[in-house]
Amino acid sequence: MGAWTSYRLRLQRKRWHLRARRKSRELSVVKDRTSQIKPNDIFVFSTFRNEDIRLPYFFKYYRDLGVDHFFMVDNDSDDGGGEYAASQPDVSVWKASGSYRKSRFGVDWLNHLQRKYADGHWSLVVDPDEFFIYPFCDTRPIRALTDWLDASDIRSFGAMLLDMYPKGRLDAVPYNRGQNPMEIASWFDSGNYTISKNNLFYNLWIQGGPRARMFFKEEPWRAPALNKTPLVKWSKEYAYVSSTHMILPRGLNLIYDEWGGEKASGILLHAKFLDTFGAKAQEELARGQHYAGSQEYKAYSEGIAQHPDLWCKWSEKYINWRQLEILGLMSKGNWA
């Protein structure tokens, strides 16, 4: 890539910063606990709507990993989730009454908050149904990972989204508030993934898994992207471009080894497919606030009606991160 392309991408990054500043007018403070922040704190940033049933376990999971502070953007929840989040002692909450779609699916809101609060901090961007897995996560807190990344002069850490699902109908076992969702959605596709490289932004583009297999089997290229760069040592000069799939500067997207080795990487266990999924898909389809007029949720709604069971004979039951490393879905690289 030449100097002209680099210049265009710098201009694009400035445009995302300006857009995030403009969209910040849609945010109003519900509870601001940022005065508690210490210099080396590790953050989680998340946007949510009507996720009260998921939030208790979400907060517990990331607290247990060692996250110090949560920045939550509530996009007009009416199920009590916003109030619950605001009641938590380590959570700051903003309410966003604007369009989720017109905020680039929450990216503008979070870009603003990260630019304002996360400069110099390790920042993890996840949804309430995403659970970050990294090498040795069963014995080492997330600070052990970020300390190693700092010592290795690595600024970003990649993780593939791994869709989890139950064996049997999605609505067969009810999910209870505060429950570990992997007690129900404990299966995943161990293969069936395609990878290509974006030559402009340098990121990998990964697709596949049960969503491609079940909902986009006739047009697999339309399946959702599974590549993410969720953990970044943030700088106010950075900006996410498309969810956490792409980030600028584009060097942050180089989370893989191009010369035959392996860089350390993680997984986001994606617990979308519970008994709550059918109602959620109908709600989001009616709102029309997701990508391409919520066509993804249209595919979900139609697919679940026809095939409410995502399990197949090639499905694998989740055990731990070492299993995912053996399958080649993540790597510990040279972190020992």
Which helices and strands occur, and which strands form pairs?
Blueprint: H1 3-23, E1 27-31, E2 43-48, H2 55-65, E3 69-74, H3 81-86, E4 91-96, H4 107-117, E5 122-125, E6 130-133, H5 142-151, E7 156-163, E8 187-189, E9 193-197, E10 204-208, H6 209-215, E11 227-233, E12 239-242, E13 246-248, E14 266-270, H7 277-287, H8 291-306, E15 315-317, H9 321-326
Parallel strand pairs: 2-3, 2-5, 3-4, 7-14
Antiparallel strand pairs: 1-4, 5-11, 6-14, 7-11, 8-15, 9-10, 12-13
Helix pairs in contact: 1-4, 7-8
Pfam families: Glyco_tranf_2_4
Protein described:
The protein is of the alpha/beta class and 336 residues long. The protein has a single domain (3-327), classed as Spore Coat Polysaccharide Biosynthesis Protein SpsA, Chain A (Alpha-Beta Complex). Helix content is 29%, strand content 22%. It has 9 helices and 15 strands. The strands form 4 sheets. A 9-stranded mixed beta sheet has the order 1-4-3-2-5-11-7-14-6. It is globular.
CATH topology: Spore Coat Polysaccharide Biosynthesis Protein SpsA, Chain A
Q: What percentage of residues falls in helices of 4 or more residues? A: 25-40%
State which percent range the strand residues make up.
Answer: 15-25%
Shape: globular
By CATH reckoning, the class would read Alpha Beta
Order of helices and strands: HEEHEHEHEEHEEEEHEEEEHHEH
The computed structural class is alpha/beta
Uncertain runs with pLDDT below 50, 5 residues or more? Answer: none
Computed over alpha carbons, the radius of gyration is 19 Å
Largest sheet data: 9 strands, mixed
The structural domain count equals: 1
In whole angstroms, the N-to-C terminal distance is 35 Å
CATH architecture: Alpha-Beta Complex
Counting DSSP E segments of at least 2 residues, the number of strands comes to 15
